[in-house]
Amino acid sequence: MVATQELLCILSVVGYFVPLCGFLVRYARSRWPVYLFFGFFCVLRIVAYILGAYYNSPAVVFGSLRYINLFIADVTLVSIGAIHMLICIGQLYHSIVPKIFHNHNHTMTAFETFCFVHIRIPFFPFAGCLIAGTILANPTYSLVLQERGVILRKFAILMLLAISLLFLYISTAYHFRFPEHKAAFATTGTATFFLTLAVIYKVITTFDVSTSESVWAAYVFAPLVEVIALAIFSVDLQTLFLGHTKDQVITDEEQGHGENKTNPTEKH
């Protein structure tokens, strides 16, 4: 008989596969790398839930060394995925927002430059802390190492929550700053809201391990909010933000970053 966790993992795999197809179609039309970033996140989640379905099946003995290794690999992939999703949003804003500023002849402040150009830099140390903390949580390690792993995970997940809230603030603030792009920022803001819920869930389970024992929270709520966010992100973001009638490639030269003059033939 198929276990509940195994069945829910299989359903989650199907759920992530749907937006993955959407991102691949978008990328095939536009060759815009942002769609590949989101698609890779879907792949990470699919692999993680396939592992989850396997170690929750009768083929693997609960509590065995094999089970523990598969579980750690699964949690590590989930952690990498959490970081990668925020990198996706950072890459999206990096590709789009400087272009909007350029088209409106606006100059970015130091804070905006950090948010839209350098925001991906802090992800590397946070990623290292989160992945190291996840690996050190292996119950076969000493208690000292496990405690250090917990501290690293708590620090990293709180920083990821802070960045997630920053992205949520950005989508809300620029929703009002650029009324002509209101629909675009409302779309990304809604998707970011659902992802923030997923990050908050990870914060709760990190600080209170007992909450991770809820099957419905871990295998229904967490993947559901992410799939909803991915479905929203899989719309034609370039048309929403830049007013294109179809997917188009956005090159670094087009972004300008305030270095080139606005093309007078461009639609503003």
Fold and architecture overview:
This protein is mainly alpha-helical and 268 residues long. The protein has one domain: Rhopdopsin 7-helix transmembrane proteins. 75% of the residues lie in helices and 0% in strands. The protein has ten helices and no strands. 34% of the residues are buried.
Main sheet: strands, sense, barrel: none
> Radius of gyration in whole Å, from Cα?
20 Å
Instruction: Please state the second-level CATH architecture.
Output: Up-down Bundle
Which stretches are low in confidence, meaning pLDDT under 50 for 5 or more residues running?
245-268
Shape: globular
Summed up, the domain count is 1
- What is the highest CATH level, the class? Mainly Alpha
Strand content: under 5%
Classification by helices and strands: mainly alpha
Number of strands: 0
Q: Specify the number of helices.
A: 10
Global mean pLDDT: 84
Oligomer: single chain
Distance between the termini: 59 Å
Keywords: Membrane, Transmembrane, Transmembrane helix
